[in-house]
Amino acid sequence: MNILIGTLLIGGVAVWLYLGLPNSEWRRAAWLSTWEMVRFTAPRMVVALLGAGFFAELLPREHVEVLFGADARVTGALLAAGMGPLTPGGAFVSFAIGAAALKAGAAPVAVLSYVSSWSLFSLTKILAYESPLLGKRAVLLRVAVSWPVPLAIAALGGLLSA
Amino acid sequence: MSFVVKEEPAARPPEPKPKKIVDGGLLFLAAFTLASGLGVAWRFGAGRAWEIVLETGAFIAVLSPKIAAGLFIAGTLPMVLPRDRVAAWIGGESGWRGLVLGSVAGAAIPGGPMITFSLAAGFAAAGADLGAVIAFVSGWSLLSLNRLLIWELSFLPHDLVALRVLASLPFPLLIGWGVRVLVRRQTA
Questions:
Q1: Residues of B whose CB is below 8 A from A22
Q2: Could you name the domain of life of the organism this protein comes from (chain B) (predicted)?
Q3: Is the domain of B124 the same as that of B42?
Q4: Do B29 and A44 touch (CB under 8 A)?
Q5: Cβ within 8 Å, pair B37-A99
Q6: pLDDT reading at A142 higher than 90
Q7: Are residues B156 and B110 in the same domain?
Q8: Do B13 and A29 touch (CB under 8 A)?
């Protein structure tokens, strides 16, 4: 159901964007640009989803529950936040790992902390894109201000769901 | 709604920039996948590893219409986005309005880090304020709609996704504001 709703929304936006392009030259350029995106994303996606599937199978359930379960509370959220930057690859990897950890007994709050920490501090993103494009000073300023945010999101999430 | 496409005069579209397909990131990911695949085959047998390959293939097939539409948006939107106007909206004197606009623009922007950080660098070069640029980057990091619809809802239960979004909502603004305060203190 989630997948169907997402597909309809994203598809609607794509059609709207396509109909807004001024002429056939722009439409051709849009297809070319999309093709570049496909060539870049498809291999990464297939490899990453496979890797996430294998990784989820290897997750030691009993450890996940002890380290990230409901009883682990703050230490679980902290540890989860620490793993965020270290996760390789794109969004699919972190969400797949989050989903696998949830199934293996991790607390929702720990998953919130992990996913938020990956979103903000993924080392792949920072080293490959942010630092070269925006400069070290911007990265340092951003990290200096936002380092507690994953824990704050986890805490807020815990309060909101209580 | 009619599906008649437009045919109007317009300036030439921008040339697409080809990207390097095989890079360090992909090789690292491939090594990670290979190692975990071998790990599964060693612990649970090659049959289980093959089952996971098939499950993943089926999952990709189910997701593919969504991914295709998402890639079209990610490829096309940067072509039609008025960069200079956005930079002016989130300029140095833009106050809270600039931070809000930056965060919202970040959430709405489709596509991966390459697109987002190039846009952010473009805004900064066109005179946007660093706090607003970082609000934009943080809005994209925490609230990216495209990623939420394509990936997050495909993996995580929707109540957890809703909780995450709700709990993350104030932070792009707060981060942008915090960066402004730090920058002011540094230059004062």
A1: 6, 8-10
A2: Bacteria
A3: no
A4: yes
A5: no
A6: yes
A7: yes
A8: yes
